[in-house]
Write a structure and sequence with these properties.
Layout (H helix, E strand, L loop, with lengths): L1 H7 L2 H14 L1 H18 L1 H4 L31 H36 L1 H15 L3 H12 L3 H28 L2 H7 L5 H37 L11 H8 L8 H28 L1 H7 L1
Length: about 290
């Protein structure tokens, strides 16, 4: 595989080859660049600033862009720039945590369903039942049951995303376990966990990693949707979703309240999807040979 050849080369050659390859894979480079910029802005800049995102100042309500408030202020006089950064932290943390939880649960459920026949019908029927419910409605129902907290948003998004990941993993496990080398390994009567961890998981991991980037993007959108509808991150804590909700009635009088969090959300989601597309190309042997 061409990607393997890159990592087997000498350090100088490997560095040169990797840089050249990333230059040809513009989707991965642009996507990672956008995600890194958004992450640095949301996690590093607030550490360097002492501004309180929840500080109310009635004397400076709905002020436009100025040196003191580069993104203006909202209807409560709160600094939109500070809330933008802190809201981005919440949105990215919820998205990343939800994607990690959904990937882990989906991996376990998918492997069990794909390898253990009697569990397949049980687990997949549960997954089908969850998939039959629109994700937003399922998320709202879970939040209504669990309560409006950031941790509960992560749980709700993980439950919404797990069935899709589980079905993908199951299909890959069914394909891999029919390979000749897996049948040969089974003749040695290996331990189940050893067979799965050493021979099945490595062969499905690339697909799972690529899908996880898309789950991350979907979770960021879903969190913003729940917060916009009032079922996500509770005020006064900021997230891009509830900032959009605050600014939806102010588009013509104070556009900056909604436009900046919308741009942050769009930038993060586009970056994650481009990174996922580029990662898929990088891990596809046919695409890698073509790029090289």
């Amino acid at each position: 595989m061409a990607v393997d050849n890159i990592f087997r080369a000498s350090p100088s050659t490997r560095k040169h080859s990797f840089v050249d390859w990333v230059g040809k894979n513009r989707s991965l480079a642009i996507g990672c660049g956008l995600v890194i910029v958004v992450a640095i802005a949301c996690f590093v800049v607030p550490v360097l600033s002492s501004a309180d995102p929840n500080a109310v100042d009635a004397n400076h309500r709905l002020e436009g862009i100025s040196p003191e408030h580069p993104f203006g202020t909202d209807q409560f006089g709160r600094d939109v720039l500070s809330r933008f950064f802190h809201g981005g932290q919440i949105s990215l943390i919820v998205g990343l945590s939800s994607a990690a939880a959904a990937t882990g649960l989906g991996l376990v459920v998918g492997i069990l369903a794909g390898y253990v026949n009697w569990l397949d019908q049980i687990l997949m029927r549960i997954a089908d039942g969850l998939l039959a419910i629109p994700g937003v409605l399922l998320g709202i129902g879970l939040m209504a049951s669990l309560g409006p907290e950031v941790g509960n948003v992560i749980i709700a998004m993980a439950v919404v995303s797990t069935p899709t990941m589980a079905r993908l993993v199951r299909s890959r496990v069914i394909s891999v376990k029919e390979e000749t080398y897996i049948e040969a390994i089974k003749l040695q009567h290996p331990n189940f966990f050893r067979l799965v961890s050493l021979h099945i998981v490595p062969n499905i991991l690339t697909t799972v990693v690529v899908q996880a980037t898309f789950v991350f993007a979907d979770a960021v959108i879903a969190e913003a949707t729940l917060s916009f509808l009032g079922a996500g991150v509770p005020p006064p804590d900021a997230s891009w979703g509830n900032m959009l909700a605050d600014g939806k009635t102010l588009l013509f009088s104070a556009w900056w309240v909604a436009v900046f969090p919308a741009l942050g959300l769009v930038t993060a989601v586009i970056g994650l999807n481009l990174a996922g597309d580029g990662l898929r190309d990088m891990l596809d042997p046919k695409t890698t040979r073509r790029l090289r």
